Amino acid sequence: MAVQPLPPSRTASVGPPSAGGMNAPPAGTPGGQGPNSQQNLNQIIDHPVHRETLATRGDCLDSRQYPQTSTLLCFSHTSRFDHIMAHLIANVNPQVLEYLSKKGYSRTEAMLRKESRHATFDANQEPLDFADRTKGRQWHESYILVKGWIDDILDIYKPELSRLLWPLFVQCFLQTVTDCFTIEAKRFFEECQKPFGEEHSDDLRALSSINEPEHVQENDIAQLYRTNKYRLTLSKMGFATLIEFLEVKEAEGGKGINYLLNNHIDIHTVDRAAIGGARGLQRLMEEKHGEEQAPAEDEGIPGHHPGSANLSADATGALNRLALGPMPMEADLMEDVKAELGHEDITNPPPPGRSTLTDTFEQRIKSEPVEDTAPSREAIPYPPSTARDVAMEVQKVKENRDRFRIEGKTGGVGPGVSVTMFTFHNTFDSVNCIEFSDDNTLAAVGTAESFIRVWSLDNRALTSPHDPPGFQQSSSRRLIGHSGPVYALSFSPSAAVSEAATNGHTDRTTTSESQPRYMLSCSADTTIRLWSLDTWTNLVVYRSHNSPVWDVRFCPHGHYFVSASADRTARLWSTPQIAPLRLLVGHDSDVETIAWHPNGAYVVTGAGVGDRTVRMWSVASGGQVRIFTGHTGNITALACAPDGHIIASADDKGVIVLWDIRTGRLVKRMRGHGAGGVWSLDWSVESTVLVSGGADNSVRVWDVQPNKETKENKVNGETGGVKVDGVTVHGTGAAAAAAAAAAKTAKGKSREQATPDMISDFKTKKSPVYKVKFTQMNLVVAGGTYLP
Amino acid sequence: MSVWNPENVVDVAESIGIASLNRDVVEHLARDVEYRMSQVLNEALKFMRHGKRTTLNTQDISQALRLLDVEPLYGYESTRPLRFGEASIGPGQPLFYVEDEEVDFEKLINAPLPKVPREMSFTAHWLAVEGVQPSIPQNPLADPRSAELAAKGSGANSTLAAVSGNDNVSVKPLVKHVLSKELQLYFERICSAILDENNDEYRSAAFASLRTDTGLHQLVPYFVQYVADKVTHSLKNIFYLTQCMQLIAALLDNQSLYIASYIPGVVPSVLTCLIGKHLGNAAHDGAATHFALRDYSASLLSKIARQYGPSSSTLKPRIARSCLKHFLDSHKPFGTHYGAILGLTTIAGVQGVRALILPNLKAYDVHLQEGMKDDGKKEQAEFVVRAIVDALETLKEDSVGAMANGHPEGEALRERLVEVLGEVVGGRVAERGDVGLVGAVLEKDMVV
To answer: Rounded to the nearest 5°, which phi and psi values hold at A678?
Structure first.
């Protein structure tokens, strides 16, 4: 039927939008209006509702009260009404008109005559509208139409309009499937998926298998796109040209696209020129040119202002203030620590050139930026401090003073970071995670065979008071209890007590107690377990999650911990209680990884396929305080800077993104890791250097200094009125443009091409790096398994 | 149209007693099966990712099934790859199935326990020290690709460039691999130092450095090439040749170098210095100086043979063959013969002397006698005779009975010796009157 020649009246409706279909002069009597079925006609017309709608609509159009009606209709598209109309018009015939005139509905009759011009009939009296003509290819053709137009459009609109293609593609595909055109849907998918392979590979994989309407109902990803509106920001001009085009092509598929735009896509328009010439349009052009595709910060399903966790449609862009300062120390504890430090200074005077411990401590307390409010201790209660806490604090101050200083990148030369690599052998790829304790005396490994193994790094025997007499002591222990692969481990906080510091101080009874005493583990058996490192036994099993638990992390101050699970929640616990204290619900897919803010008042979570957001939660309230969007892969690692202002997140496409917590904006993207996942991230003590380790057998060191332009944006953001336009403040700035240019020269290597902020790249010998960690003294400890 | 073959659905339906299924239903089900399978795979990928692996395994599938509330498939958790059997259910209709191994219970019980897998362990090393990756065995070799991957342009940082060897390197056009400026300088200094005739101290310092310094590996091919060049072009200069031999000796002494692969390149130069026709300038250096060089080369050669003979099966035979060839060629000057005899003695040892030199002495005697008569060659011939006698001396080592039992005395002995060794050498041996030597020499005779 698609090959039917177009009747003249159809072509008449295709014209400039000003002469929109309904206002066009009549093109003569529609030809070929043969006799048709009229059995239900009287019923239809007599139906009060229909009569009503017909009449009102006719009146309204007749009186020409709304010159923009055509546009309005396109927009509102409450398809119910349209369907009825289409049906009516399709079946209209002279008898109806006769009936109407006989009953005196003159205006309705006139209107019906007018409207019936659009309904055309072929020889079999079948309606010939676009959907029917193209059958299952309706959405395919529509999509091709828009894509062709966007490909040819002025360069100035291209970058932003091409972002529209992905949601349209998904919706067109899902529409075709819902209409039961399985074969056509498959073909459409095969033909048009190519440009999205890079950015949306995971979603494509999830969608590719959908071939029945039931699957659309069931599939998480499909539901995500069907039930949410994909948010997108377009400039006013770009949007206007798009609508104009769709109106012109209304009968060739534009109508369908328009329907999708209204129902599944949430387009925000901004005036780019008003934002500021250079930063609006030109920047957009520069960045998008040659740059690999990456979504803007406010694009996508959550649909929110960049950074903001307020998801309601009428939310303002303003962000709430967060208490990012360090947790204030308990008054008693501070007294004790000061006294202890004073004692230490006298018995162990600092070497020349070093400040005393007391000075270092005072400095650390005072040097904190004033603009950050500190969280209150009342909101997050902790058990009273013990002698162990004093010892740990003292040790932290000591280490802080004696650390290797990394002052950030100066003059293009990065700091020289030292990395100790612990390589695990004979693992047969069964190791899921590696963890080092804070005092660097223990290493633990979680395996796919459900057990945990702990080693002493200094080859000390791991003893337990419960050891039977004659027990052969060794420097490693197995912890058996889980019934599924162990996915994450976390040691309770501890501080190293170096030998040098304690020599001659045998009266220090606290030293041995600063070792980690507990370890948490989580597993596919949905449980979290707490292990005692004194007796090497399981103390508590925490059951609450109902899917595998992917990650678990101790609070930097101990006592609390947080877990992330495949049941799309993260849960906050305290060690003495077996039920979670807070449920952190909001992610649209598995919560893959988790990190604590250094002050212990916030946690950060990262999610996988379908969601791919990084979200920040308040421990006190359990609510979301920030959402960061912009990743294109599953988030595999998170780390919050010790100064509490920046979050680093990495995905399995090898991209590391830095986010500013206060302004909720993207600071920059750092590329260089190969695909396969960045398994671990960590910050130096000064928050100046980030280190990452991943599946591409490398440990990399990154400079985290933001680029100049982003700094300006930060200032903008701080005033509270964060611009809605996410694209213009796309953080990579000029450096990224330069990198993109370089990427262009090295054809096709853009993935592996490192951005200039990579300081060093240390390759290992066939050993994927599972864990990287900065010690308090700024030495990097890395753990990996040798996989020949 | 679906990847999953609808006929499988028919088969399953028949197996549970549904004889006829509507075609639409079958296709619908096939598509649904396909969707379910991809659903399982998508879930399984999550487990793979959290296992920090890049390959999917059967465990992941089991976990995914469990997560989807489906009974996992048991029996596929083996670590060995599955074997697929093929059966035919009709022409062109192969049926694949997992082949189950038949295990004899008796055998299984009585079989020795499998080896315990090696215990998991860890090692520690420095991946980087102050931003530089030390070149220790635990770290991979510098990747030449890293140079390309390092960011270029204004923002690129110099540490990376230095790591990948990009800075301050002037590349010699003909040289493929990049030699750092320091190494180039070192090479030049060493070469000029060892050829400096007037400065002993300088020379010995250079050799000492070659003998002990680590990290010269990159320069080894250059030194080998250098020696080869010098030897070919400075045959007239005994001093240069000697220095070259010493250079090689120094490199061989260096414990940190791996010379084995360069031996084929070194041996020709040494052989040239051993059995070269005309070494040095007789008028300038004196007629006999080259014998010292030959002595030195011979000892060098023996050292090479000792060190690298075991690792290269053809090394020793090849050297011995070329020595023998030169020894048997009477047109060659005495110097060459001298070198060849030395070479044979050192390379082939006692067996060689007995098998290769001794039988040929009688024939060689003619040549020697000629030489002794000629005043100009007498001195050279004298050296050869001494070398032969020295070679024969080695025979003593493995002669059976050192006693001259049954050997005639006096003139008769001399005749016997002359008969075996020829006029000149026989006479010389007889003169020495060393009973052991005589015995060793004649022992062979007795065996024959």
So the answer is: -100, 110
| Cβ(A292)–Cβ(A631) below 8 Å | no
Report the residue from B35, B138, B155 with minimal CB separation from A209.
B35
Q: Is the pLDDT of residue A711 over 80?
A: no
Judging by beta carbons within 10 Å of its beta carbon (0-12, 13-18, 19+), is residue A195 exposed, middle or buried? middle
Q: Which residues of B touch A425 (CB under 8 A)?
A: 118, 120-123
Q: Tell me how far CA of residue A298 lies from CA of A135, A240, A314, A458, A533, in angstroms.
A: 36, 21, 14, 49, 45
- Angle, to 10 degrees, between the axis of helix B263-275 and the axis of helix B238-253? 140
Residues in chain A closer than 8 A to B59 (CB atoms): 448, 485
Q: Are the beta carbons of B47 and A417 separated by less than 8 Å?
A: no
Count other Cβ atoms within 10 Å, centred on residue A349.
10
- Per-residue tokens: A713: 């944006």
CB A77 within 8 A of CB A262: yes
Residues 26-85 of B with CB under 8 A from A: 28, 31-32, 34-35, 37-39, 42, 46-47, 49-55, 59, 63, 66-67, 79
Whether the complex's predicted ipTM is more than 0.95 is answered with no
Contact in structure between A628 and A297 (CB atoms under 8 Å): yes
The pLDDT tens digits of the residues spanning A119-133 come to: 554 445 544 566 666
Class of domain B181-312: mainly alpha
CA distance B242 to B210: 16
How far is it, in rounded angstroms, from Cα A357 to Cα A337? 10
CA dist., res. A428 & res. A486, Å (int): 15
Structure confidence by residue, pLDDT tens digits, B24-65: 888 888 888 888 988 999 899 999 999 988 888 888 898 899
Q: Residue A63, class by beta-carbon neighbours within 10 Å (0-12 exposed, 13-18 middle, 19+ buried)?
A: exposed
**b/e for A627-644, b at 16 or more Cβ within 10 A?**
bbbbbbbbbbbbbbbbbb
Residue B116 has pLDDT above 80, yes or no: yes
Beta carbons of A766 and A788 less than 8 angstroms apart: yes
B24 touches chain A (CB under 8 A): no
Q: Where are the domains of chain B?
A: 6-98, 181-312
Q: What is the pLDDT of residue A647?
A: 94
Taking residue A64's Cβ as centre, other Cβ atoms within 10 Å add up to 9
* Structure confidence by residue, pLDDT tens digits, B339-392: 888 888 888 777 777 777 777 777 787 777 877 777 777 777 888 888 888 887
- Residue A375's pLDDT band (boundaries 50, 70, 90)? confident
With beta carbons under 8 A apart, name residues in chain B contacting A672. 149
A424/B122 touch (CB, cutoff 8 Å), yes or no:
yes
Residue from the list A485, A672, A735 with its beta carbon closest to the beta carbon of B51: A485
Give the per-residue pLDDT at A133: 67
What distance in Å separates the CA atoms of residue A487 and residue A679, rounded to the nearest whole number? 12
Q: Compute how many other C-beta atoms are within 10 angstroms of the C-beta atom of residue B129.
A: 13
Amino acid at B132: V
Amino acid identity at A564: A
pTM over 0.80: no
On chain B, the residues whose CB falls within 8 A of the CB of A636 are: 49
Contacts within 8 Å (CB) and 24+ apart, B278-284:
B278/B235, B278/B236, B278/B333, B278/B335, B279/B235, B279/B238, B279/B241, B279/B335, B280/B235, B280/B236, B280/B237, B280/B238, B280/B241, B281/B236, B281/B237, B281/B238
Distance from CA of A219 to the nearest CA of B (A): 9
Question: Quick one: DSSP state of residue B262?
Answer: G
DSSP code per residue over B129-188: BTTB----TTSPPPPTHHHHHSPPSTT--HHHHHHTT-TT-PPPTT-SS---HHHHHHHH
B6-98 classified as CATH 3.40.50.720: no
The answer to whether residues B365 and B424 touch, using CB atoms and an 8 Å cutoff, is yes
Candidate from A421, A608, A754 with C-beta closest to B127: A421
